[in-house]
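Sequence in, structure out. Go.
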Amino acid sequence: MQRRTVVLLAFDGVQPLDVTGPHEVFAGANEALGGPVYDLSVAAPTRGGVRSPSGLVLGVDRDLRTVPPVDTLLVAGGQGVHAARRDEAVLAWVRATAAGARRVASVCTGAFLLASAGVLGEGPVTTHWAHADRLAREFPDLEVDADPVYTTDGRVWTSAGVTAGMDLALALVEADHGAELAQLIARHLVLFLRRPGGQSQFSTSVWAAAPPPGPVRAACDHIHAHVADDLSIDRLAGLVGLSARHFQREFRRQVQIRAVVERVGLNAVRHELASPIPIFVASEDGRFLLRQLRRGGARFPRV
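Output:
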């Protein structure tokens, strides 16, 4: 089986998860396949270690002068990326390494470094949502999209922030070795749902405010834990000791009962559809199911 060299570029001020998350995904592929199908190394401008803004020090395997020919170059992000992209030696190395690599990728604000090096093309690119406007301002020729978890434009991939780097790495592994291996790695990393690139960074599960402690929070917790059970208003109200009318009024005030039940149900469907275990999904109207999944943020071809 072909061995591929994967180099993760780090620097002082790097976001640690931008490095360790993808690293664990590729290492998981090595473990699952019983051998080093990926030769992994972390490179930085200087040998030794790089310090993150939180004070964590990451070990570095190579300085930029000792990096071998690269199959996949993955550039991390973090607060230090702007200092790194002002370093002409770093930019020159990124340009030269990217030119010889089969594919190039960035996590989070690593897109700024790729853009500064002239690596990003005309296709869509993404970054952490909080930095997308700045990327678009500084590089007006780029097609910046703040919504997707990751994008691909030929051999160039970009992803949103932090944990999205793991989704990106899983997609790269899938491209090399198939969806079954990528899903196996996701399960071993206890990722409930391996997100497709088109899924929005602004998912309801991340952005919805949690209700304060009390009956409504208890009901939400029950919905998440018992998605296949009876989740009618009468049933939920009884579980938390409220009348149906009072419960419905409180839910309407704090959250939306239909939105909560539908969102949890759709996430469960996505999880099962991604499972290797054969399942059958029955619906009186398959088109209705597709509409509901699309409303929940899933993206499928029109049928």
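Check: The two ends are 38 Å apart (CA to CA). Residues 277-285, 298-303 have pLDDT under 50 and may be disordered.
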